[in-house]
């Protein structure tokens, strides 16, 4: 466990500029909306089932994964799930919400199609704002998903939409590729056995583009990502890193790595406001810490 001590010492030296790694939990909400046709109903049900399994493996606790689909996936049911999360989660936790189905846009508001009253982007925003989790990810895989981007914008929140605007109204193929991204090692671009929201987005985005090119169709969906924390928001784990889900020591190390990755993104975004020396010096320290943390993760996994 020497590597873990090295990381702890390194993080301590960087205080208070770099706050202590949080070991909060990640909660998942997967909602399958109306399909309208038998083919869509079957596809959406399959996607929800796969996502539920993948999220449970990543969370390490089935109680932190809420999945609803079909006639039971009403607006009231969605609200009840968020009410429960508001009671159970805290500021140190993360929340990932995946919406599978069809959406609509009337020129002003996006709506997720559900049995009974639909769920609007404004209503979803209120539910998210009432949940104390400090980091949030919302993935809307539906038609017209881009119509929700502006409404859902918020600090600490990443929003991924299958379309660039509400006016891309055709049924999307993004959902299938998003699910694929969470289980395909090819999506893990840095080969650290943890797939981030950014890695999954880029994978699905590339697959969508390839789909339309190979089918020689005009692309009717253009995925978009909004928010700054996608590169450090883990949505799936692979191989040995799955041990982190139920291992406090590993979870702490993964949290430390994600904080360093977030800090690197923040520094890169501030490049123009920093001197060249300060910029590269700060990055050097962060990359050294990232390497030490990764080594500690690998060492801890080997000892398990």
Question: Quick recap of the structure?
Answer:
By secondary structure, this protein is an alpha/beta fold. Helices cover 45% and strands 16% of the residues. The protein is built from 9 helices and 11 strands.
SSE arrangement:
Blueprint: H1 2-14, E1 26-32, H2 38-59, E2 65-69, H3 75-88, E3 94-100, E4 103-105, E5 110-112, E6 119-120, H4 121-129, E7 135-140, H5 149-152, E8 157-161, H6 174-181, E9 194-196, H7 197-214, E10 224-226, E11 234-237, H8 248-269, H9 276-303
Parallel strand pairs: 1-2, 1-3, 3-7, 7-8
Antiparallel strand pairs: 4-5, 5-6, 8-10, 9-11
Helix pairs in contact: 1-9, 6-7, 8-9
Question: What would your notes on this structure say?
Answer:
By secondary structure, this protein is α/β, with parallel strands linked by helices. The protein contains 9 helices and 11 strands. It has helices at 2-14, 38-59, 75-88, 121-129, 149-152, 174-181, 197-214, 248-269, 276-303, and strands at 26-32, 65-69, 94-100, 103-105, 110-112, 119-120, 135-140, 157-161, 194-196, 224-226, 234-237. The strands form 3 sheets. It has a 6-stranded mixed beta sheet with strand order 2-1-3-7-8-10, with helices on both faces. Helix 1 (2-14) packs antiparallel against helix 9 (276-303), helix 6 packs across helix 7 (197-214) and helix 8 runs antiparallel to helix 9 (276-303). The longest helix has 28 residues, at 276-303. The N and C termini lie close together (11 Å). The model is unreliable at 1-22 (pLDDT under 50).
